[in-house]
Specification:
This protein is α/β, with parallel strands linked by helices and 241 residues long. It has a domain at 4-15 and 34-45 and 80-120 and 141-237: 3-Layer(aba) Sandwich (Alpha/beta knot). The chain has helices spanning 4-12, 59-68, 78-89, 92-95, 124-137, 180-185, 223-237, and strands at residues 36-43, 47-50, 53-56, 99-106, 111-114, 139-141, 148-153, 165-170, 192-198, 212-214. The strands form two sheets. An eight-stranded mixed β-sheet has the order 6-7-5-4-1-9-8-10. The protein has a two-stranded antiparallel sheet with strand order 2-3. A hairpin with a 2-residue loop joins strand 2 (47-50) and strand 3 (53-56). Helix 3 runs parallel beside helix 7. The termini are far apart.
């Protein structure tokens, strides 16, 4: 697994990081209007050498390996963050240029920035391969050398957010259950909104930097479903067709 020393090397010596050949750019507009950020907390992106290959652990491929190490395979769920990213990046919100960035903080505390023009692989296997490469190489450039699309960055995540943002945590345990469309329409139009969503199978986010903690349903929802509701509400609020 990636050590804290390895992570700090990637953060402090960014120019020396070995770059990958690159991934395709997704077609996106750029907008100067208000935008939105997403933070995916407690993402299960746990790397390990399985045999001689460096891989992201998941229960479909590595159940036997994990059980041999007395670990519960279903604690390792990279599919949750994969589905969450697909939901965000395929939204009209993103296509219209109103998505500013996605941040992923792993269960081990590693912080990743994903640029809006990143094309997320459709299959879980390809996604896990990409994330394993990222954790080894510290950054991934776009094809044609048009900048870094994914990179490891320093904690805390708040240092990478503009000052004028409202940070909103989502949790089923929150007593404040709201209609998302009403919530976003009532938000201060001078602020960018930051939505913090848990990318884990169980538990709740533990983010001391949030300004408000809300629930978008009286029932527990998956991260992807929560994000879909948020994206649709923001698209309607900003009249993105």
């Amino acid at each position: 697994m990636l050590s804290k020393r390895d992570q700090s090397m990637g953060e402090e010596d960014d120019n020396s990081a070995v770059e990958l050949p690159g991934i395709p750019l997704a077609p996106r507009r750029q907008s100067s209007k208000n935008g939105v950020y997403f933070i995916l907390e407690k993402a299960s992106l746990v790397p390990a050498y399985v045999g001689k290959k460096y891989q992201i652990l998941n229960p479909d491929e590595h159940a036997s390996f994990l059980r041999k190490k007395n670990m519960n395979p279903y604690d390792f769920r990279p599919d949750i963050v994969h589905e969450a990213l697909l939901q965000i990046m395929s939204s009209r919100l993103c296509m219209a240029g109103r998505l500013r960035a996605v941040f992923i903080r792993t269960d081990e505390g590693i912080l990743i920035k994903v640029e809006p023009r990143t094309q997320i692989p459709k299959t879980l296997g390809s996604f896990c391969n990409m994330m394993a490469e990222l954790l080894q190489k510290f950054s991934i450039k776009s094809k044609g050398n048009q900048g870094k699309l994914l990179r490891l960055i320093q904690n805390p995540v708040t240092k990478h957010l503009p000052v004028n943002t409202r940070k909103i945590g989502l949790s089923f345990s929150s007593p404040n259950t709201i209609q998302v469309r009403d919530y976003v329409s009532a938000a201060n139009q001078d602020e960018d909104l930051v939505f913090v969503v848990g990318a884990m199978a169980h538990g709740k986010i533990d983010a001391d930097y949030i300004d408000d903690l809300i629930s978008v349903s009286s029932y527990p929802l998956s991260a992807a479903t929560c994000l879909r509701r948020i994206c649709i509400a923001m698209e309607r609020n900003w009249k993105i067709m």
